[in-house]
Amino acid sequence: RVYYVSNVSNGGNSRIFSVRTDGSDETLEVALDFNIGSPELSPDGQLVAFQRGVDADGHTDMFTIRLDGSALTRLTTRESWSYHPSWSSDGSRIAFAAGVIWIMNADGSGLTNLHTGGRGAWIPAWSPDGQWIAFERIESDDAHRIYLVHPDGSELTRVSPESETQDLVPIWVP
Description:
Oligomer: single chain
Number of helices: 0
Largest sheet: 4 strands, antiparallel
Strand content: 35-45%
Shape: globular
Number of strands: 15
Structural class: mainly beta
Helix content: under 10%
């Protein structure tokens, strides 16, 4: 099944639907009374991690909710913007971006800054084997490059070459 978020235009609330790959059997999984962004389904298909606005300044934090609409859990309480959650392949940890790449346990404990440098880091993506996190880093000259780092913060390595282009949105292929 394919899962997606639909935002209600007149109320700003989000709904999570699933549908078969042939477009049939659309199912409303969760109707929320708030708007969400960057949803990511856990590997076991039980939880959705997402960003949600938490104040009038537009700051966002990371949350999870079960697909039956229960167990809404706020994972972070930062006075910042938190974006792009990415589950580890075993579902035990979540990486997210907030200027740098952070990781935490799936329950929000163990929050760790990976000290990814540059002017910003976005869009983390766990490798299928859980050994690396790929991400987009903004360099001092505003160039966007793809980097890798181990979940313990070691071996920060740029993998995209110098070029005139902007390198965006890393994706792993199993």
